[in-house]
Amino acid sequence: MESLEKTKKVKWWKKPVLWVQTTYFAEGYPYTIIHSLPEILFKEMGASLEAIGLTSLFHLPWNLKFLWGPLLDQFGTKRLWLLWIEIFLSVLLVSLSFLVAGKTFFLISVVLFLMAILAATHDISIDGFYLEALNEEDQAKYVGYRAMAWRVAYILVSGPIVIFVGKVGWELGFLALAIMMFLLLFYHWKALPKVETPENPLKALFQGVWRWKILATSFLIATGVALENSTHIISQYWQKLTSPITSLPGLSHLSAAQWVGLLLLVVLFVLLAFLPTLQRKVKKSESPFAKAYIDFLSQEKISLILIFIVLYRAGESFLTKMKYPFLKDVVGLTIDTYGLLNGTVGTLAGIIATLLGGWLIAKQGLRRWIWPFVLAQNVLNLLYMWLANYASHQPVSLWVSGSVICLEQFGAGLGTAVFMVYLLRCVDPRHKAAHMAILTALMSLSFTVAGVMSGFLADAVGFSSYFGLSFLITVPSMVMILFIPHLDGREKPESP
């Protein structure tokens, strides 16, 4: 596929460099609304701590989205899915502006959960559209813009929007959020190119057997949400079911979403053991779901790919979990200073690195840059080991701590560019949405493991040794670079 900008003259406001940023801003926008605002809203409404804790369930659709990802490949186009979801998100945000006035906790919870399902599906459509509309070179070139736009949305909603809500109230706050969503929808309707031919029209999804499946699933979800909010019966049953496992140190802190990610990885490896049998059965099946999952597992060296994806960010995960406790307790940073150095200056360094990394990979290829960028991501963890030793002998200036934070974030940004490009290479063009949904569900597993082990490990060995171990943990994934496929691009699949 040639670049969109090269194949025909494109108006400046329709160029990929713009719509890549707006679509990924639109991806981070509802995600942050769902993950940042409900706890504040429910606390302001006087909800109990137990009810506020249940807002973590809103994250589940992002971990479960691989279950319905194949639908986006089979029905309609990614562009059409993206636009319709943005319509519904705009409508639901408007509805919230009315519901918050009545403080109807149950209805607000249902609307937020529906928004979570739509937003998770929105992610699939955006990732799928990115793969449909851009060739490999452009996919690599724009990864930095993706990361930057998503981060800007996160900062906007979790910072200025919260301040705005505090000034004008929740009613006007949600209305303003809806207007922003509608403006994104309008631009995407005008600017996004039509690059797909649908296998089946989108309306076919809501006809025949699919209609009843969707209605039944929606009814079960609504019933589950209602039961959990009124009786907490699901969480009580879950606690009893998992108590033999969660009694182990650290595992009790895993959320339902984190358990889903771990179970997905286990299920994929179990399916691999029966892959030849499953491949024979899929040839006789017309199920788009079965074909999408089996084709994912049938790609070259899939076991290595899965392990590499899970391990790739292990060092960063362990570092991130203990970064603030270390900088606060040992270095002596205040929360305001930490927010400035890590959340502002460090984030900017990471964004610049991801932009640079994506541009270099697009120009010279992933194989040329994977080692320098991965080493930059992982070796710079040792700066924190040095800082821990330095801080034990003398006070640490803001210049020293700020330099360490910025260098580490810059290295992490280069590593992010590699990771995002490699994930795109692991997607079969026949199942773009489904495979990207599986990969993104797996990519955060290292943070789950770090969440279980980091506190115990840091307490046992001390911060200096802990940060040294955060580098050693990266060695297996670096060794695997010698064996993983797709570093020179992905071969086109054989026609079925």
Structure description:
The chain is an all-alpha fold and 496 residues long. The protein is built from 25 helices and no strands. It folds into 2 domains: 230 residues, Up-down Bundle (Growth Hormone, Chain: A); 187 residues, MFS general substrate transporter like domains (Growth Hormone, Chain: A). The longest helix has 30 residues. The radius of gyration is 23 Å and the shape is globular.
Topology:
Layout (H helix, E strand, L loop, with lengths): L3 H4 L8 H29 L4 H5 L6 H5 L4 H6 L3 H25 L2 H29 L2 H6 L1 H26 L1 H22 L16 H24 L1 H14 L9 H18 L1 H10 L3 H10 L4 H10 L2 H18 L3 H30 L1 H14 L2 H10 L6 H28 L6 H11 L2 H17 L1 H10 L2 H6 L16
Keywords:
496 residues; mainly alpha; Growth Hormone, Chain: A; 2 domains; 25 helices; globular
Give a quick rundown of the structure.
This protein is mostly helical and 496 residues long.
Can you tell me the residue ranges where pLDDT is under 50 for at least 5 consecutive residues? Answer: none
Number of domains: 2
Q: What is the β-strand count?
A: 0
Structural class: mainly alpha
User: How much of the sequence is in beta strands?
Assistant: under 5%
Mean pLDDT value: 86
Distance between the termini: 20 Å
* Radius of gyration based on Cα positions: 23 Å
What is the level-2 CATH architecture name of the largest domain?
A: Up-down Bundle
CATH topology of the largest domain: Growth Hormone, Chain: A
Q: How many strands, which pairing sense, and closed or not: the largest β-sheet? A: none
Shape: globular
Order of secondary-structure elements: HHHHHHHHHHHHHHHHHHHHHHHHH
| Count of helix runs | 25
